[in-house]
């Protein structure tokens, strides 16, 4: 656990970057620091591994004040990932990843083996190990940056806007990869971003900081979206926070209709304008209008229980029938959430 | 094309004369002298300029020294500095000549070493410290390898400069290949002037090629293919 | 001060304008001509060659290789070799200095044009500039600072290099160095060094001023 205890950073010219910040980053969770530029989020992060020293207050690492630890020793026990990856251009990828193990005096062979293992772990082809950083794409370099930070298996990982320099598609896949890794590794991660969507997607807890380095709110993403502490947080969250909150509402409670899904060859129930035609394997084939039984229209699906209400709503909006198709993990149809069912779920979400 | 025939004639005369191949005034001896003086001056300049350049680049303190050195080195006339030192210190040893050679060789190395270290991208420095490297490790394991192309450029420019200044220094009594040119000119022995000049030019080109080779071998392919160093506009010093 | 060797100031006063070719004043003028002519010629040569290298990148590799070789040639032997062609004249000094200047300026022109941001170039194309007009009114002005900083190097180097020409009797103020060495006497060396450095500083200052006037936007962007 990382504890900020009344931490202030004041520069010699008098500017205050961080102002009496107190917060905890619990072990095994991702704590995201988010806020506009000038809110001191990066400064706060860099005070943990003493890239910057706090002016007042204390930062504790599992109860031990970091100010008492020799900075290089401290840093070798904390993974550090930065925006431009910061890979050493003169070293091959495998040696970049093995940087900290080498520093810790590991046997060269063992360090390289560990590096190869990590490259695979972060989703990189082992054949890239012998390349130099300039031969890799930005997204690949960033993965190497994460692998390098994990090389000595540090319990704590600091990530300073690690995904903000790559394009949105790559960013999404890097975020998914991080969540997948975290599910296996359970590191204590402090993650800095200016992107509130990234904060909500990745964070177990999100700390919103305001300019001047004060904490505006510390909460889990769902609470943050449903009960912002003040106008600053509300504005920072943006206009569609109501919609985004739905991504934390589960679909397991949705009422489903099974009569609208119809096996191949059979006809739909009477009185319904649409029915869902199934393939022989029980997967959705398309929506069939009552008047034109030969037509197949677009459909949208969500995985029942795993996907959020936001996904279910999205699936409903994608099909002309206005209903969302619930499927199981294998893509087989479980039932159909009609607009009425969705309406009732939305009403419940609004109350909660 | 009469000048070409006389030129070739002089060359034949110079290189064909067996007297030019032996003794203290022979080509092997003069070549060795030239190499020794140049190497001595370059080595001393490296000993001074590389540590100072690394220190200033790494700490960011004392940058004014670099600016002044860079500008003064280009503006100072080498012949004038050589004559001044010899007039002030006499000719009892080679040092009155070697000292200005070293002084003029320092700035290109100093400036390029400094620029090289300074030009390393800040995030690279940041990452290095963040991984837990200590100050000396950051310098030795990251900054120097990444700045190596510029550091070696400084060495090369300095070496070229030393070879050229050693030639000029023959005027103030130093040995080396410059003797053929200076003495030959004084006695209107054009075969000596032309032969000596060709030797010096060849020597300079070999030095240039040697440094290019060293660069090929020592710079990491990860650095030379696409520099992480923000490369300042080619900084060429007064190299003669 | 009376008898004995003249002091520095007495020596200057006595030799400033003797009417002979080796008066300080005449040496200064010679020095100016021999150092500034190569600066001008190398600029005139480097502009078209640099443009050609920027336009046809394939030319650049061999050209810059050749210029690197030229730059490595020590000046004294080159002067000596040229004597058999151009004699003991100022031309013998001016020609090599012109080539040294080109060795610095051609890369400067290429780098300068490369410093034009791609979006600026694209915008000019999109607005309908013809290639020639784009070069003259957009790309060259943006390249000016890089070219001028190369020109500063060339001017200062030329001014100090001319003095080596004294060893073949054509060195401008360098003549003061050989004179001092022959009658062991220090004032001429000091005067020579000071004047050469002063000329270099003045030339450098003029070019800095020229850059400010030609490219006001550079100064506006980073106040120093």
From TrEMBL, chain A:
Keywords: ATP-binding, Nucleotide-binding, Transport. GO terms for molecular function: ABC-type quaternary ammonium compound transporting activity; ATP binding; ATP hydrolysis activity. It is an enzyme of class 7 (translocase). SUPFAM superfamilies: P-loop containing nucleoside triphosphate hydrolases. Residues 2-237 form the ABC transporter domain. The keyword Nucleotide-binding applies. It holds the Pfam family ABC_tran. Its EC number is 7.6.2.9. The keyword Iron does not apply. PROSITE patterns: ABC_TRANSPORTER_1, ABC_TRANSPORTER_2. Belongs to the ABC transporter superfamily. PANTHER family: OSMOPROTECTANT IMPORT ATP-BINDING PROTEIN OSMV. This is ABC-type quaternary amine transporter. It comes from Nonomuraea pusilla. The lineage of its organism: Bacteria, Bacillati, Actinomycetota, Actinomycetes, Streptosporangiales.
TrEMBL record, chain B:
It comes from Nonomuraea pusilla. SUPFAM superfamilies: MetI-like. Belongs to the binding-protein-dependent transport system permease family. Keywords: Membrane, Transmembrane, Transmembrane helix, Transport. Pfam families: BPD_transp_1. It is found in: Cell membrane; Membrane. PANTHER family: GLYCINE BETAINE/L-PROLINE TRANSPORT SYSTEM PERMEASE PROTEIN PROW, POSSIBLE OSMOPROTECTANT (GLYCINE BETAINE_CARNITINE_CHOLINE_L-PROLINE) TRANSPORT INTEGRAL MEMBRANE PROTEIN ABC TRANSPORTER PROZ. The keyword Transmembrane helix applies. This is Osmoprotectant transport system permease protein. GO terms for cellular component: plasma membrane. InterPro entries: ABC_transp_perm/SBD, MetI-like, MetI-like_sf. Residues 31-211 form the ABC transmembrane type-1 domain. Its main location: membrane. GO terms for biological process: glycine betaine transport; transmembrane transport. It is a multi-pass membrane protein. The lineage of its organism: Bacteria, Bacillati, Actinomycetota, Actinomycetes, Streptosporangiales. The chain crosses the membrane at residues 40-57, 135-153, 159-181, 193-214. The keyword Repeat does not apply.
UniProtKB/TrEMBL annotation, chain C:
Gene3D superfamilies: MetI-like (1.10.3720.10). Pfam families: BPD_transp_1. GO terms for biological process: glycine betaine transport; transmembrane transport. It is found in: Cell membrane; Membrane. GO terms for cellular component: plasma membrane. CDD domains: TM_PBP2. The chain crosses the membrane at residues 32-54, 66-87, 93-114, 135-168, 188-210. Keywords: Membrane, Transmembrane, Transmembrane helix, Transport. Residues 28-207 form the ABC transmembrane type-1 domain. The keyword Transport applies. Its main location: membrane. InterPro entries: ABC_transp_perm/SBD, MetI-like, MetI-like_sf. Signal peptide: none annotated. It is a multi-pass membrane protein. Belongs to the binding-protein-dependent transport system permease family. This is Osmoprotectant transport system permease protein.
